Description:
The protein is an all-beta fold. The protein has 2 domains: 1-41; 62-106, no CATH class. The protein is built from no helices and 5 strands. It has strands at residues 4-10, 16-17, 33-44, 58-84, 87-104. β1 (4-10) and β2 (16-17) form a beta hairpin.
Amino acid sequence: MAKTHTRYVCQECGRVAASYMGKCPQCGSFNSMVEEVIHDEPVSKNTAVDAKYDEKQDLARASMATGQLSSPADRLAVYFGHTGPKKCEINIDFGKTRGWVEFREK
Ligand SMILES: [Zn+2]
């Protein structure tokens, strides 16, 4: 089963917090923390259109975070970025929703 948890991310500077804060402790912005719901999503080799989920076919698991964009995207946009030392991110935007996965080198 996919697990879900919540975190808060500052839309100004990207600071992540476990609980809501009215003022960002990093950049000082007010009301910039946006709630994200994080699901642990599997990567599976069971990719047929009518396939049922089978945990044994999972290749990897990663935390997929979602958040809301300030303005809607009218087409699907996919970004791959190097966001820091030993760290990359894939972002997918559509409508008012952004989903992303972070990859870290061990
Ligand atoms: Zn901030």
